[in-house]
Amino acid sequence: MARNFKIVLAYDGTDFKGWQVQPDCVTLQGTLADAIERVTGERVLPQGSGRTDAGVHALGQVASFALQSPIPAENLRLALNHTLPPSIRALELSEQAPDFHARHSAKAKTYEYRILRAALCSPFTARYVHHHPYPLNEEVMAQAAGFVVGQHDFTSFAATDPEKGKDDQIADNVRTIYSSHWQRQGDLFTYAVRGDGFLHHMVRNLVGTFLLVGKGTLEPESVATILSARDRSQAGPTAPASGLFLVSVEY
Q1: How far apart are CA 21 and CA 30, in angstroms?
Q2: Residue 195 above 80 pLDDT?
Q3: Active site amino acids
Q4: Three-state SS for 195?
Q5: Range of 48's domain?
C-alpha cells in the first residue's frame, strides 16, 4: 500500500523557473521529483501547496506525494538532502493520512516581501530583496496595507490566466486576507500577509501598488477603489520576484 508523505521545503528560487514542471526548464517540482526517483526508484510528481513563480523563494513550502518505498521518513529526508542541490532543503518529512494533499488540505498561507532601503545592496543580499533606496512614505504604505484585510475579490491584483475566460477568472478570485502589514527592521522594510489563498502574482501586485502609494502617486484609500474596480490595469506594476518568500502553510 502506498504511503502518503508531507515534505516541508526551503529553497532559493533564483535559478528555477518556478515550482511547476515545464518542458526544457529547471523547476522546483521537477528537481524534487528527480531526487525522489534517484533515492527510491519511483517516479512521482510532488504536489505543492501552490505554484511559486520563477525567482520566488520559500522558507516553508509544502508538497505531498505517495510512495511504495519502505524507507523510514527521516532516512528519506536525509537521502533527499544528499541528492537535492544546495538551493533546496527538505526541512521536515512525515507520513500522513491518505487524504492529505498539500494544496487541497491547506487552510492558510503567509508570505513576506522584503524591500531593502539601504543606499547599497550587498551582492550577497541582492537575490533575496527588492532594493529600493529611493524616497518612500512608509507610514502611508502601512495604512494602505490595511485596506485588503477581509474577504474581497482580488481580480485587480491577479495576473491574467490565459487558460480561463474573463467570467471564470472573476468568479475564482475571491480570497480572505487575515492580516496585512508592513514592518521596518533596520534597513529592511517587510510586508507580511496571511490569507486563505493567493492568486497568481497577487502579493507582488499588491506590493507594486503599495509602492505607488509610498511614492505619492496614489492615496492609501485608492487601494479600496482598485479592489472594487476588479480591473488589473487599475493596480500598480508587479514587484520583482526576488523579494518574495512563501513563509509557511497552515493545515
Answers
A1: 5
A2: yes
A3: 53
A4: strand
A5: 3-96
